[in-house]
Specification:
Blueprint lengths: L1 E5 L10 H4 L6 H7 L7 E12 L2 H6 L2 H4 L5 E8 L3 E7 L5 H4 L8 E12 L9 E11 L28 H6 L1 E2 L5 H4 L36 H5 L27 H10 L14 E8 L3 E2 L11 E8 L4 E7 L1 H6 L8 E5 L2 E4 L6 E5 L6 E4 L5 H6 L15 H5 L18 H14 L7 E10 L3 E4 L3 E10 L7 E6 L5 H5 L6 E9 L10 E11 L10 H15 L2 E4 L5 E4 L1 H4 L11 H7 L3 E4 L3 H6 L6 E17 L5 E9 L4 E7 L12 H6 L5 H4 L4 H14 L7 H11 L4 E9 L5 E10 L2
Parallel strand pairs: 4-6, 4-7, 11-14, 19-21, 24-25, 27-29
Antiparallel strand pairs: 1-5, 2-3, 2-5, 3-4, 5-6, 8-10, 8-12, 9-10, 10-11, 12-15, 13-14, 16-18, 16-20, 16-23, 17-18, 18-19, 20-21, 22-23, 25-26, 25-28, 26-27, 28-29
């Protein structure tokens, strides 16, 4: 490994401001050659691609770069308007990506970079070199240069009248080098990994969303992955005959369990060949990324299915190349045959798992429908599911194990009304439920995709939906990792959605009141529900949605949020109640408790596309309504901190996902219409106390916002708890909103 460091000259006359604002005409050649003869190089970003560090990458990078390697590594596809080049972003600058400062179409001013030579990964060809961007600035919108098309006169400035380049223009730009696949394909620049990851989830490879890899060459499988096994196949292979050649015997899953128990462990001369299995795919898990920065693994993906026949159910796991071959092919309800598998015990040595290891000779075939009746007559498969009435919440609550209900993957649809009764019973009995359930309905609210940064990258999205019971809205947290991010991002208000294999959240307080997706969940929208037309709830949901949408309109907000607005939805309340005390807020919302003076520090830690709950302890100074437009006002809460002699104003509104406290009728009648929005922010105990005081003091006059504030200040000398959500948009703008005011105890 050799390294060439490029830094600007020590002394150089100051350049004109106009020179700073233009893309460097030969910027790609400078970055590739490693000789920085200008104070900086200005380039435009076409794409940002993430992958995981591994031991091979640590060996390649120079020590001053490698010491910043933690987990994530980013490749940037940049252009100077003439050519494009893949560069590596120094791991010390990863925060620029997570805070959305470096993104597609960002303009970078590169001040220093390294050229790293690596021939270890391409032993049969010439040594390969790549650029590591070490010191750079992101230009603000006011500083950005005019973006010119590729055809620019040499030495001339792009005129402001030239139209900005389109995605097609960027795709036609030539790569500086196409000698190595890693320089122009969807492959990391360095290291041993053979895939890029989504920016929102570790479990979603970029290959699932071809549009996300725009700008990179879509090559043959062998060029993209070096080894041909890693193709994400979408082609089903059907068996010619359900009998193995030379046999006229159909084996049940029980035969496979006996084979695994009796035969010697591992492959060897003393082990009989595994019987060919036939069964129905009962459950299919999400694709899981098993990568570790300290472990060298080119393709660490896996998924598993639960395969069942008339009497038995087993779990089959697919690793590495087998996951790539079958994850997009196998679906729940498929009748399949399996051979070439092996058997192993799980980590606890308590459960037997059937596996198709990476690079194994295992095979999976789909069974044509013409053989299904034969398999039913030979009692290998159960009879297909009938279109009976869907089970109730009581039916599901009696079974704690998935798999206790019927076979052939019929949705176990629970109505929103039954879901609310089930949730109430769970809170009363504190019973831990492990059964799965499905919900079908119309999406009334789809929140933005929110990213969580932890040991792994994951993202989620809050949605609300309603069905024909139209009494309340169910709240569901949809994790991006259960589906390709594009499928979750496509959710919008007005869609008919079937969410399968949901489960109750395992948390406490508020978290235990919502349903969440599981490793087996699927998100089916609109026309994707066609295969379930025989299920009464699914068929009725689609026809009822047409009636509902006639009375409503879809309103869109920033960050891809959308909601239904109309008479039916406005009368509904979500099923999840808002916590009513500071202790409940902290535990239920997993919030950080802090004083008002510390809120700026906590808000600075919020990254782009992230939402963090804060419980701010302070005194209520004022309630106000301020005009924000021609037809609307903002509800404002002024919070003070007597100990630090500071105060701050927050916009306030009830959270879209949680039920606001019921206002006593006497208090509602005594309150002026412009002050009613403030009552929705108060906890039940505060409302009851306010109602009692209002009956004795108002004397028939309408209660204003100022009067409500005075009542709360007079009655309570101690502080309140304010539930604040801190969220940062993709643009970097920070929003702090108060959603509830609760007593300290």
């Amino acid at each position: 490994m050799r390294r060439l460091s490029a830094t600007p000259p020590a002394k150089r006359p100051a350049a004109a401001e106009a020179d700073v604002l233009a893309l460097t005409p030969s910027g790609v050649q400078i970055l590739r050659a490693g000789v920085l003869c200008e104070p900086h190089v200005v380039v435009r970003v076409l794409g940002v691609f993430r992958y995981m560090a591994d031991p091979a990458l640590r060996r390649v990078l120079p020590e001053h770069v490698a010491r910043h390697l933690d987990r994530d590594v980013f490749d940037l596809l940049v252009t100077d308007g003439h050519m494009k080049l893949k560069c590596m972003l120094s791991p010390a600058r990863n925060a620029l990506v997570w805070r959305q400062r470096v993104a597609a179409q960002s303009i970078l001013r590169v001040r220093a970079f390294d050229i790293v030579h690596d021939g270890a990964l391409d032993a049969d060809t010439a040594p390969r070199a790549f650029c590591v961007l070490r010191d750079l600035d992101v230009l603000s919108p006011e500083e950005r240069p005019p973006r010119a098309r590729r055809r620019v006169s040499l030495g001339g400035r792009p005129r402001s009248s030239v139209a900005p380049p389109t995605a097609e223009d960027d795709a036609r730009l030539a790569f500086h080098s196409r000698v190595h696949a890693r320089e122009h394909c969807a492959l990391p620049l360095a290291g041993g990994r053979l895939y890029y990851l989504s920016l929102l989830s570790d479990d979603c490879p970029l290959d699932w969303e071809p549009a996300s890899a725009s700008g990179l060459a879509h090559c043959s499988v062998s060029a993209r992955y070096v080894e041909p096994w890693a193709e994400w196949s979408r082609r089903r292979q059907f068996c010619v005959d359900v009998f193995r050649e030379g046999e006229r015997v159909l084996h049940s899953l029980r035969d496979a369990v006996r084979w695994a128990s009796a035969a010697p462990r591992g492959r060897g001369r003393g082990r009989a060949p595994a019987p060919r299995l036939t069964g129905v795919v009962r459950y299919k898990s999400k694709l899981t990324h098993l990568g570790d920065p300290a472990v060298a693994s080119a393709f660490p993906f896996m998924f598993h299915v639960v395969l069942s026949d008339r009497e038995q159910a087993i779990e089959v796991a697919f690793f590495g190349s087998m996951a790539a071959r079958y994850v997009l092919v196998v679906e729940e309800g498929d009748v399949v045959q399996l051979e070439g598998y092996d058997a192993a015990l799980d980590a606890d040595q308590s459960r037997r798992l059937f596996v198709l290891p990476h690079l194994s000779d295992g095979r999976l075939w789909h069974v044509p429908e013409k053989y299904w009746k034969l398999l039913e007559m030979t009692r290998i498969l159960p009879a297909r599911a009938s279109n009976d009435a869907s089970p109730t919440a009581d039916d599901l609550a009696e079974h704690s194990e998935p798999g206790a209900l019927g076979l052939w993957v019929q949705p176990t649809v629970v109505t929103v009304r039954a879901l609310e009764a089930w949730r109430t019973r769970r809170q009363r009995t504190r019973r831990e439920e492990r059964s799965f359930f499905d919900v079908v309905g119309v999406v009334t609210f789809a929140g933005r995709v929110e990213r969580r940064r932890a040991a792994t990258v994951s993202a989620f999205r809050w949605i609300k939906l309603v069905d024909r019971s139209v009494e309340a809205e169910a709240v569901v947290r949809v994790d991006v990792s259960t589906q390709p991010p594009a499928a979750v991002a496509a959710l919008k208000a007005g869609d008919v959605v079937l969410l399968t294999r949901l489960r109750w959240s395992s948390g406490e307080g508020l978290d235990a009141s919502v349903a969440t997706t599981s490793a087996f969940s699927r998100v089916l929208l609109n026309d994707d529900l066609a295969p379930f037309a025989g299920v009464a709830e699914c068929a009725l949901a689609r026809s009822w949605a047409e009636t509902l949408l006639v009375q409503h309109r879809v309103a869109y907000a920033a960050e891809n949020e959308s909601r239904l607005e109309g008479p039916v939805v406005s009368a509904l309340e979500p099923t999840a109640p808002l916590p009513s005390s500071v202790a409940a807020l902290v535990s239920g919302l997993r919030a950080d408790p802090l004083r008002l003076r510390d809120i700026a520090r906590a808000a600075d830690a919020v990254e782009a596309l992230e939402c963090k709950w804060l419980v701010v302890r302070g005194s209520l100074r004022d309630l106000q309504r301020r005009p924000v437009g021609l037809s609307s006002d903002a509800v404002v809460v002024v919070v003070g901190d007597p100990a630090a002699n500071v105060e701050r104003s927050f916009r306030a509104r009830p959270h879209a996902l949680f039920r606001s406290s019921p206002v006593p009728p006497s208090l509602r009648d005594a309150t002026a219409s412009e002050a009613l929005p403030f009552l929705k922010l108060l906890a039940p105990s505060i409302l009851e106390r306010l109602a009692a005081e209002t009956d004795a003091s108002t004397g028939g006059s309408a209660l204003s916002a100022d009067a409500i504030a005075r009542h709360l200040q007079t009655r309570s000398r101690e502080d309140y708890g304010f539930a604040v959500s801190a969220s940062r948009a993709a643009s970097g703008a920070l929003t702090l909103t108060v959603h509830a005011i609760v007593p300290l105890e």
